[in-house]
Design brief:
single chain, 8-stranded parallel beta sheet, 10 helices, alpha/beta, 16% strand, 5-stranded mixed beta sheet
């Protein structure tokens, strides 16, 4: 439960894990400034034991040196040359699409050039265009991508810059990469920018109002997180919603009673690390297409009685729960359950025997994690 631990406690736990004899690969992703690794529980770079490996990803070459990555263990990987880039792009688009109209080969060159030789961009955009047989669709994609690039051109390095890979032995990596690739993936998922409300991501740094009705109505995937999210809409109409993530909303205490009533297609529900959330509305039983629930590190205490109606539920994660009570005969009704985890907590202390028997009766279950104190 990292959210409830002091920095030195986290460092001690990390140090304990890394000091074991087993080999490991440690990835420090998207590092923006130098840090004292010992302070966070990581040994000095030159002292990583047992032939273990580690990688740092960052935008800043000098940071690698400050963190102890030697110069002689570094080498640079440039972007692809235009001919190579076009070959990769055409491979992802496919010959059938390229031959579907006489204008598309030329348009494909224009779109490939926008990717500036960056392999990941070429692959993502190429795959997105692999079903587009009309020149109009290609023209629109070029316009939308130009608009997208214009919106991010003021970022420090721009989207398409040289990737630098620094590699060596031991704790030996430094990769220069771009987290804005995530934005491009989201742009592709939003139908190349034409359906911007298809995915709604909201991180709360300041006061946030999450009751913007149009966002909920149009979205297929919603991700909300942050300390200032304290309230959700009473009964949003979400006829297209398939994924709902409400994570690390540490001031969110309850969900409205009618909150789940109009989410007929919802398959993924993740409320994890919302550490003050203590109730789950009975309306969750109406989510008949739900396949994944994660309630880990919440304070939810009672399992709704209608939960056994979720016949398509395949994954149920209840890690780090200390007060949850699940009455007998509820879990056994989840006939499609494949993954069940209740680790690092003490839930169900009253009904442990029932729980084990019910889990044993679920034939599809093949991934089980339990711990009781």
């Amino acid at each position: 439960m990292w959210q409830n631990r002091e920095e030195h406690e986290r460092a001690e736990e990390i140090s304990k894990i890394l000091s074991k004899k087993r080999r490991f690969v440690l990835l420090l992703d998207d590092v923006w400034e130098g840090s004292d690794l010992i302070k966070i529980g990581v040994p000095p770079l030159r002292e990583i034991p047992n032939g273990s490996k580690a990688i740092i990803t960052t935008r800043f070459e000098d940071l690698c040196l400050r963190m102890g990555v030697p110069c002689h263990k570094q080498f640079r990987v440039e972007v692809l040359a235009r001919e190579q880039a076009l070959t990769l792009f055409h491979e992802k688009v496919g010959r059938e699409i390229l031959n579907s109209h006489t204008d598309i080969p030329q348009l494909s060159e224009i779109l490939a050039d926008r990717c500036k030789g960056l392999p990941l961009a070429l692959v993502i955009v190429g795959q997105a265009m692999a079903t587009k047989k009309s020149p109009e669709a290609w023209d629109q994609a070029i316009k939308e991508l130009d608009k997208f690039l214009a919106e991010i051109e003021d970022t420090e390095d721009g989207l398409f810059h040289v990737l630098k890979l620094k590699k060596g032995d031991g704790f030996n990596g430094c990769i220069r990469m771009h987290d804005v690739i995530h934005d491009m993936a989201r742009w592709i998922a939003q139908d190349c920018g034409q359906n911007m409300n298809k995915i709604w991501v909201c991180e709360s740094h300041g006061p946030v109002e999450c009751e913007r009705v149009t966002k909920w109505e149009e979205a297929e995937r919603i991700s909300l997180w942050g300390r200032n999210i304290v309230k959700l809409p009473e009964s949003p109409t979400c006829s297209n919603l398939r994924t709902l993530l409400v994570r690390e909303c540490i001031q969110l205490k309850t969900l409205p009673g009618e909150f789940f009533q109009s989410m007929p297609l919802l398959r993924v529900l993740d409320l994890s690390a919302s550490i003050c959330l203590y109730t789950l509305p009975d309306g969750v039983k109406t989510l008949i297409n739900l396949e994944y629930i994660n309630l880990s590190m919440t304070k939810i205490r009672e399992w709704p009685t209608g939960i056994s109606q979720l016949k398509k539920l395949r994954c149920l994660l209840l890690d780090g729960l200390f007060a949850l009570i699940i009455d007998p005969d509820l879990i056994s009704g989840l006939s499609s359950l494949q993954v069940f985890s209740m680790y690092d907590g003490d839930a169900l202390s009253v009904h442990r025997t029932y729980l084990l028997e019910e889990l044993k009766s679920i034939k599809p279950l093949d991934d089980l994690s339990l711990s009781f104190h």
